[in-house]
Design goal:
With 471 residues, the protein is mainly β. It contains two helices and 28 strands. It has helices spanning 323-326, 376-379; strands at 2-4, 19-23, 28-32, 45-47, 52-54, 69-71, 93-95, 117-119, 126-127, 141-143, 148-149, 165-167, 189-191, 198-200, 213-215, 220-223, 237-239, 244-245, 260-262, 269-270, 284-286, 291-292, 309-311, 319-320, 332-338, 348-349, 355-358, 466-469. The two termini are 26 Å apart.
Length: 471
């Protein structure tokens, strides 16, 4: 279906003043949201997502005092979030993701104390996270990914004890992660990757016993990996790559549910723990670009049978890789198995490496840190990157909620129209010897305007217009 969604007769004397549900998701409807929508005084559900609605959100939306669910996502809406939205004291679910809304986040939004889901991702929102977010005692899901939000994560944020999904990645957030993160005992997702966060990783993460997906990569975090991570028995994916972490790899983190563990591009030292094979569900283990030493430990029969990616290149490790690991049919195995700078013996002997790198310790200081032995055509298909390959959908976009099922996504260069389906390629031979501190001024300041012809294909299930009235 297509054409103008909001017809003139909707606001007339015989219009939709008594409507309680207006649902027209996933069609090709166009036009603006009219100011007359404020006359639909009994409206409880507004669902117009997945269309081509343009214009702004009218301030008259603040007249809809019975509104509980507001779904405007995946359109071409511009302008600001009106402060009048704070009048909707029955509102529990708002989703305006994947639009072109560019404004600060009005603190009035968080006056709606019944809010359980606030989904604002993939817009041009700027400014800081209002402190009033801490007043939402029912809040379960907050998603502000892929915006231009600055400032710190307010201390009040950690007062929302029912929080299960926290998505703040790919913004300009700075400061530290509070020790109060341990108060969020129900948290299952905590994604703050690709920001400017600094300081140590709080040991109180160990109190988050329900945490399954933790994304902290691409920040400026320092200090050790907390051994308290071992208390997170539910953890499935742990991403802390591309920070400034030091110390050794704690053996406690190799839990039985771990599926993806990315510790790459830090300053970690010491050996790989002997018990790493106990994470028998492990699919990806990225240890590359650190200062690890020793020999990769042998594994017992049946361990790491699901492992498909192992990256240990650009370290100081030595020795021979045991055949037991090679029997697991690794798709990607990167190691320093090429002689140093083309001479001598390789530091690692491996019968199943897919890409061999030169030992970084023997290279001149002016040379790249490691050189792959494969041709560029082979390298491009398996070059390492510090980004996860897939992502769990960030909890439901629409009620009722369903459990997220996929794994964390690659950090995109923000274009709503061309959101990447796979992680970007990063050639190992061009990695700088020391990672510079990321400057917010060098990140993209704006995203291209989304073309209707290039809208994402993964829209909600198409539906026709449904309007339910009290009459």
């Amino acid at each position: 279906m297509g054409g103008e969604l909001f017809q003139a007769e909707y606001s007339g004397p015989d219009g939709l003043a008594e409507v309680i549900e207006f649902v027209a998701n996933s069609n090709n409807f166009q036009g603006n949201i009219p100011t007359e929508i404020g006359l639909w005084s009994r409206l409880q559900t507004l669902g117009i997502s997945g269309n081509e609605i343009t214009g702004t959100i009218p301030t008259e939306i603040g007249h809809l005092l019975y509104m509980k669910v507001c779904l405007l996502f995946q359109n071409q809406i511009t302008g600001a979030i009106p402060s009048e939205i704070g009048n909707l004291n029955k509102l529990s679910w708002i989703n305006i993701e994947r639009n072109q809304i560019g404004s600060t986040i009005p603190e009035e939004l968080f006056s709606n104390l019944d809010l359980t889901h606030v989904i604002l991702k993939d817009n041009f929102l700027s400014g800081t996270i209002p402190q009033k977010v801490g007043e939402l005692s029912k809040l379960m899901h907050i998603d502000m990914d892929n915006n231009q939000i600055t400032g710190t994560i307010p201390e009040e944020f950690y007062s929302n004890l029912d929080l299960q999904w926290v998505h703040l990645k790919n913004n300009f957030l700075s400061g530290t992660i509070s020790d109060r993160i341990g108060d969020l005992s129900k948290i299952t997702y905590f994604w703050t990757s690709s920001n400017e966060l600094s300081g140590a990783i709080p040991t109180t993460f160990g109190n988050c016993i329900n945490l399954k997906w933790l994304e902290l990569q691409n920040n400026n975090l320092n200090g050790p990996i907390p051994e308290e991570f071992g208390n997170m028995k539910s953890i499935i994916d742990l991403y802390v790559g591309n920070n400034d972490l030091t110390g050794t790899i704690p053996s406690e983190i190799f839990g039985k549910n771990m599926t993806n563990l990315h510790l790459n591009d830090n300053q970690l030292s010491g050996p790989v723990p002997q018990n790493y094979g106990q994470s028998w569900r492990l699919e990806e283990l990225w240890l590359n670009n650190n200062r690890l030493t020793g020999t990769l430990p042998n594994i017992a029969e049946g361990e790491l049978s699901y492992l498909v990616e192992l990256r240990i290149n650009n370290n100081k490790m030595t020795g021979e890789v045991d055949d037991s690991l090679c029997q697991n049919n690794l798709d990607v195995f990167h190691a320093d198995c090429q002689p140093p700078y083309g001479e001598g013996e390789p530091h690692i002997v491996c019968g199943c490496c897919t890409t061999c790198f030169s030992s970084p310790s023997s290279l001149p200081s002016s040379s790249p840190s490691s050189f792959p032995s494969e041709s560029p055509s082979l390298l491009s298909s398996s070059s390492p990157s510090s980004f996860p390959s897939e992502a769990p959908s960030s909890s439901p976009s629409t009620p009722p909620s369903s459990s997220p099922s996929k794994r964390p996504s690659a950090r995109p260069t923000l274009s709503p129209s061309k959101r990447p389906s796979a992680r970007p390629t990063s050639s190992p031979s061009k990695r700088p010897s020391s990672r510079p501190t990321r400057s917010p001024s060098k990140r993209p300041s704006a995203r291209p305007t989304r073309s209707p012809s290039k809208r994402p294909s993964s829209q909600p299930t198409p539906s026709t217009t449904v309007a339910k009235s009290l009459k």
